[in-house]
From TrEMBL:
<protein>
    <submittedName>
        <fullName>Cupin 2 barrel domain-containing protein</fullName>
    </submittedName>
</protein>
<dbReference type="InterPro" id="IPR013096">
    <property type="entry name" value="Cupin_2"/>
</dbReference>
<dbReference type="InterPro" id="IPR011051">
    <property type="entry name" value="RmlC_Cupin_sf"/>
</dbReference>
<feature type="domain" description="Cupin type-2">
    <location>
        <begin position="42"/>
        <end position="104"/>
    </location>
</feature>
<dbReference type="InterPro" id="IPR014710">
    <property type="entry name" value="RmlC-like_jellyroll"/>
</dbReference>
<dbReference type="Pfam" id="PF07883">
    <property type="entry name" value="Cupin_2"/>
</dbReference>
Amino acid sequence: MDVTHIPSAETEVLEHPVQESTVLLTKGVASAFDGTSVSASEVTFRAGERTKWHTHDGVQILYVTHGTGVVGTRDEERTVSEGDLIAFDPDEEHWHGNESGANAPFSHLSVIAQPEGAGPTVVE
């Protein structure tokens, strides 16, 4: 078992390869299981912020922890809110973020399980 404590004081502002306009606020941990890397981050989007269209080599699961936001694939776009769980299949083109006229931040926990060394692929 590996237990990691991440106090809120360790929140960092990071550049992220799939962010469309500005930075993401993330807190995360990562572990490897037989060639599969599992990472978790809490991501916060301010009004109008969203990721670029992207894919992952593995599964991405989002759990909405605060506010209302939007997730989209090439086939649909959905409004999501606190308590919603979203799963994207490997290689599924998608994006996620906050509405442009939002009055509050939108946050979700992102868990990604993919081959070690893999990262997101920006598709547009």
